[in-house]
UniProtKB/TrEMBL annotation:
<feature type="disulfide bond">
    <location>
        <begin position="250"/>
        <end position="291"/>
    </location>
</feature>
<dbReference type="GO" id="GO:0019901">
    <property type="term" value="F:protein kinase binding"/>
</dbReference>
<dbReference type="GO" id="GO:0030593">
    <property type="term" value="P:neutrophil chemotaxis"/>
</dbReference>
<keyword id="KW-0677">Repeat</keyword>
<dbReference type="InterPro" id="IPR057073">
    <property type="entry name" value="EGF_integrin_2"/>
</dbReference>
<keyword id="KW-0472">Membrane</keyword>
<feature type="disulfide bond">
    <location>
        <begin position="22"/>
        <end position="451"/>
    </location>
</feature>
<feature type="disulfide bond">
    <location>
        <begin position="558"/>
        <end position="563"/>
    </location>
</feature>
<feature type="disulfide bond">
    <location>
        <begin position="472"/>
        <end position="510"/>
    </location>
</feature>
<feature type="domain" description="Integrin beta subunit VWA">
    <location>
        <begin position="29"/>
        <end position="451"/>
    </location>
</feature>
<dbReference type="Pfam" id="PF00362">
    <property type="entry name" value="Integrin_beta"/>
</dbReference>
<keyword id="KW-0130">Cell adhesion</keyword>
<feature type="disulfide bond">
    <location>
        <begin position="516"/>
        <end position="521"/>
    </location>
</feature>
<feature type="domain" description="Integrin beta subunit tail">
    <location>
        <begin position="623"/>
        <end position="705"/>
    </location>
</feature>
<feature type="disulfide bond">
    <location>
        <begin position="539"/>
        <end position="544"/>
    </location>
</feature>
<dbReference type="GO" id="GO:0007160">
    <property type="term" value="P:cell-matrix adhesion"/>
</dbReference>
<dbReference type="GO" id="GO:0007159">
    <property type="term" value="P:leukocyte cell-cell adhesion"/>
</dbReference>
Length: 756
């Protein structure tokens, strides 16, 4: 469905009218209609469709259906239904075991897809509602002075809580940081005593320790806190997110009650480590948001990374815990930024010695309890919820939450909750709840995507030719019959074969524009009253090209998507008068015979250029393509020598000249005899039609001299022979010279021997 808002600006008022529109796609049944849009309704009236009309005309807005003759009682539109499954009244006091602060508790909704349902949710904070406060303290060395004051805090803290409720409980936990480098000195002695050497009261390094379960006993709180001593670490940020995560997920060990306002008061003077910082110590395993408490110590402190802010916020919200950050002035801005990412949290500035912590907690609690934020969990896909607060200090309507501020204890407020589903679903649930409060409202949502028609139980209804029954006004045929009124018996053929004959190229049956009746398409009428036509209803006479916003320019008839123009007009939309004036060339031809004149403009054949198709930039060079014809026509030689007249006379008119007069295309090519032929070409009307002027004289190279070749060959052989003889003679001479020198040397040796 679609909704259009048309704004009219009047002098006295601005009005916005909403026009109901049913945007239909493929409609074959009442269910298809209901799912197609929020304003779509179905007419089940028999004989509502006219001859040739498809059943899709039964689907439209109520106004259009009535206008077409459908009776109001025959129009089907599923209505929204709201049922309060559980609606216990709000409690005034918290003296009952489970005080009710939110009403109703369970709602069942059934509504049309795209439609909205609005219901009211009431909230009243019960007076004296139990409070569980977990005091989580930083015991790093810089908090030494604060610890002394916290040990005397019990009496004042309980007194402050008793002004709020008689059912207060307090627990206590402490944290420092992971006991690995670079956060803590891992020297054995330093692990046991990470404080200064002069400080005798120092406990061993630790990550997070749960000290005291929730207790209503002031003395027990005082005794356990008094036993605590300071510890220490190396870097400034602490493991506070580690401690808060364990305090949130280890509910049975902390002692959180099921029905109570849960508070964590975090006191520190330093920042915090978060997800990813563990890599500095080689800790790569991400935090898995599970409880790992052994002997009241966080056992996975050195094995698992710090949690992310998102993980912590999710667990605090899931367990209805509201944190109060009591921090020193130096880190106030850091925790204010953190508070923006954690719903229902407050930040208070702690004095240097923590003396103001009780007043800080009381103020923060009052701010938290006076602000009521209604939101949701586990919202299904394609569901939108909008909250509209109804109270004195209401926030703006929102689709993620609704906020009422400055709400007093015992004051009843309400929220209008609007639920919209944009797709079909069945029994999808989500919860609506105030942040920090246990009470919830469970909403079970289903959508009406099918029609609940009251049909006659006659399986051989006359409307269906006695071969089917009526379902929401249309025929559901018995086996062996098909058609809009079951009028076709398929006989020996199966229905699939008959329907296949109504499909073009295995496409949609009758192009979605008709009904397949006995293997042939029976085309529907169009919205304007004309009919689709063609073997597969593929044609209509309404979707041709327009000119001046008129179909076929008002100068022709639309037939199957193409314009058939009246005499004297042409063009795709009959937008042009028939004329060749703009296509005429200087030689009085039309586009030089190389194109057609349409709308007084040349449409050239491939390669030829506008405006008159005179030149062809992409065509092959005619000097090369016409060379064989030029050679045979001018000099009776070349490849076309034997069939020159047949091959060339129709495309080239030639003349033999001494000097060319054509200047358009000058060519010089080498023929099959190796001679250079010079000729000029002029393209005549048409594509393959040329006039050629061929120079009578070819430039041929002189033939080689046979005498010179023979003489040169003989002289070369003689020269080579002489050179070989001289080389042989040189080798013999060198050998003889070597033998002679050898002989002379032996002769000298023999004379020297005789002298001795």
């Amino acid at each position: 469905g679609a909704q259009f808002c048309i704004e009219f600006a009047f002098f006295f008022a601005g009005l916005c009218q909403q026009e109901e529109v049913c945007s239909k796609s493929v409609i074959n049944s009442c269910g298809d209609c209901i799912r197609s849009g929020k304003y779509c309704m179905w007419c089940k009236q028999l004989n509502f469709t006219k001859a040739g009309e498809q059943d899709a005309v039964r689907c439209d807005t109520q106004t259009q259906l009535i206008r077409r003759g459908c009776k109001r009682e025959e129009i089907i539109s599923p209505e929204n239904n709201l049922k309060i499954v559980q609606g216990d009244s709000l409690s005034t006091l918290s003296n009952q075991p489970e005080p009710v602060q939110l009403s109703p508790q369970k709602i069942s909704l059934r509504q049309r897809s795209g439609h909205s349902t609005t219901f009211s949710v009431s909230f009243k904070r019960a007076e004296g509602y139990p409070v569980d406060l977990y005091y989580l303290m930083d015991l790093s060395y810089s908090m030494k002075d604060d610890l002394k004051n916290v040990k005397e805090l019990g009496k004042d803290l309980f007194a402050a809580l008793n002004t709020i409720t008689k059912y207060a409980q307090i627990g206590f936990g402490a944290f420092v940081d992971k006991t690995v480098l670079p956060y803590t000195n891992i020297n054995k002695e330093k692990l046991l005593k990470p404080c200064d050497e002069n400080d005798q009261h120092c406990q061993a390094a630790f990550g997070y320790r749960h000290v005291l379960n929730m207790t209503p006993s002031e003395d027990e709180f005082k005794n356990k806190v008094t036993e605590q001593s300071i510890s220490g670490n190396l870097d400034s940020p602490e493991g506070s997110l580690d401690a808060m995560m364990q305090a949130a997920v280890c509910g049975d060990k902390i002692g959180w009650r099921n029905s109570s306002t849960r508070l964590i008061v975090l006191t520190t003077d330093a920042g915090f480590h978060m997800a990813g910082d563990g890599k500095l110590a080689g800790i790569l395993e991400p935090n898995d948001k599970q409880c790992y408490m052994e002997n009241n110590l966080y056992s996975k402190s050195s094995e698992m990374d710090y949690p992310s802010v998102g993980q912590l916020a999710m667990q605090l919200e899931k367990n209805n815990i509201q944190p109060i950050f009591a921090v020193t002035k130096e880190v106030e801005n850091v925790y204010k930024q953190l508070s923006k990412m954690i719903p229902k949290s407050e930040v208070g500035v702690l004095s240097s010695d923590s003396k103001n912590v009780v007043q800080l907690i009381k103020s923060a609690y009052n701010r938290l309890s006076s602000k009521v934020t209604l939101t949701h969990d586990n919202l299904p896909a394609n569901v939108r919820v909008v909250y509209t607060p109804k109270c004195d200090h209401a926030g703006p309507p929102g689709d993620s939450e609704g906020v009422c501020d400055n709400v007093r204890v015992g004051q009843e407020i309400s929220f209008d909750v609007t639920v919209t589903a944009t797709s079909c679903m069945e029994d999808k649930s989500f919860t609506i709840r105030p942040l920090g409060i246990k009470d919830t409202l469970t909403v079970t949502l289903s959508t009406n995507c099918e029609c609940q028609c009251v049909d006659p139980q006659n399986s051989s209804h006359p409307h269906c030719t006695g071969k089917g029954q009526v379902s929401c006004g249309i025929c559901s045929c018995s086996e062996g019959s098909i058609g809009q009124f079951c009028e076709c018996s398929i006989g020996a053929k199966d229905e699939r074969t008959l329907r296949a004959s109504c499909q073009r190229q295995n496409g949609t049956e009758c192009e979605g524009r008709g009904d397949c009746v006995c293997g042939r398409c029976k085309c529907h009428t169009t919205e304007s009253g004309s009919s689709y036509h063609g073997d597969f209803c593929e044609c209509d006479d309404e979707h041709c090209e327009k000119f001046l916003n008129k179909l076929c320019g008002g100068k022709g008839k639309c037939n199957c998507g193409k314009c058939e123009c009246d005499g004297g007009y042409e063009g795709s939309a009959c937008q042009c008068r028939v004329s060749e004036e703009g296509c005429r060339t200087l030689n009085n031809t039309v586009c030089y015979g190389r194109g057609t004149c349409k709308c007084n403009r040349c449409e050239c054949r491939e390669g030829y250029q506008n405006p008159r198709c005179q030149t062809c930039l992409g065509c092959t060079d005619p000097c090369q393509t016409k060379l064989n014809c030029i050679e045979c026509l001018g000099f009776e030689s070349g490849p076309f020598k034997k069939n020159c007249t047949v091959a060339c006379s129709k495309s080239i008119y030639h003349e033999m000249v001494d000097q060319s007069t054509i200047q358009s295309r000058k060519c010089q090519q080498k023929d099959s005899d190796g001679c250079w032929i010079k000729f000029n070409l002029d393209q005549l009307v048409g594509e393959d039609n040329y006039k050629a002027e061929i120079l009578k004289q070819r430039d041929c190279p002189e033939p080689p001299s046979v005498t010179a070749i023979i003489g040169g060959s003989i002289a070369s052989v003689a020269l080579i022979g002489i050179l070989l003889l001289m080389l042989i003679k040189l080798l013999i001479y060198m050998k003889d010279l070597k033998e002679f020198r050898k002989f002379e040397n032996e002769k000298k040796k023999s004379k020297w021997a005789e002298v001795r």
